[in-house]
Recover the amino acids of this structure.
């Protein structure tokens, strides 16, 4: 079947951006992999949003093959920046030039609700929602220990959003939102590709450490001068 077209206007979709022509369509696929509509489509430059090894291993640890296969595809290419060239991991959520972009979809909204419940001391209610998402992915429900603890449920919701929404543009903001400061954001970003870790193994590239002025953009001087009630962001 026509998988790119069949994915449009599903019950999961709340707001999506669509393309309807195989001959033009969007260029989203070009940034991440090949166009599945073009047999033996070739490409010759490194792509963005390459899945990390700790993401793929997070799927494997859960036995989450359905969402892993929807998010990651392995292919042969002409470079080995982060993976061996004969088995390179690519982002797989835009497989064709007519695959819609989900701006808002049901699972993301449900998991936002779960996050709100976990943050208002209703871990059981949060767990019920997370288990709905996990059941749809055909993986095991949360544990009794997770259901009983708001702290553990906040972690569980963050983890579930990572698996469900991988490479859809939510992870950075989820990490910024977690806790009272940016410590979780710093921990995850600084640990993503340490030599010898599960992230990039021998495909190591030096990464600058996170700090306050790498989280928020500065407020322009003209805005601060026009409105003295506005304060400059941290780090500037």
């Amino acid at each position: 079947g026509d998988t790119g077209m069949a994915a449009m206007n599903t019950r999961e979709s709340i707001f999506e951006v669509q393309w309807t022509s195989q001959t033009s369509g969007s260029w989203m696929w070009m940034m991440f992999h090949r166009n599945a509509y073009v047999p033996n489509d070739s490409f010759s430059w490194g792509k963005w949003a390459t899945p990390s090894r700790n993401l793929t291993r997070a799927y494997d640890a859960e036995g989450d093959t359905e969402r892993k296969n929807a998010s990651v595809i392995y292919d042969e290419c002409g470079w080995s920046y982060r993976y061996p060239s004969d088995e390179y991991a690519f982002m797989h959520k835009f497989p064709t030039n007519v695959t819609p972009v989900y701006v808002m979809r049901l699972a993301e909204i449900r998991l936002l609700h779960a996050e709100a419940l976990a943050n208002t001391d209703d871990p059981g209610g949060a767990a019920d929602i997370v288990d709905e998402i996990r059941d749809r992915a055909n993986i095991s429900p949360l544990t009794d220990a997770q259901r009983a603890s708001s702290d553990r449920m906040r972690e569980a919701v963050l983890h579930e959003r990572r698996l469900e929404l991988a490479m859809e543009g939510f992870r950075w903001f989820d990490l910024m939102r977690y806790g009272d400061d940016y410590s979780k954001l710093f921990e995850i970003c600084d640990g993503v590709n340490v030599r010898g870790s599960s992230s990039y193994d021998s495909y190591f590239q030096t990464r600058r450490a996170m700090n306050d002025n790498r989280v928020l953009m500065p407020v322009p001087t003209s805005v601060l001068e026009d409105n003295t009630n506005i304060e400059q962001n941290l780090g500037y």
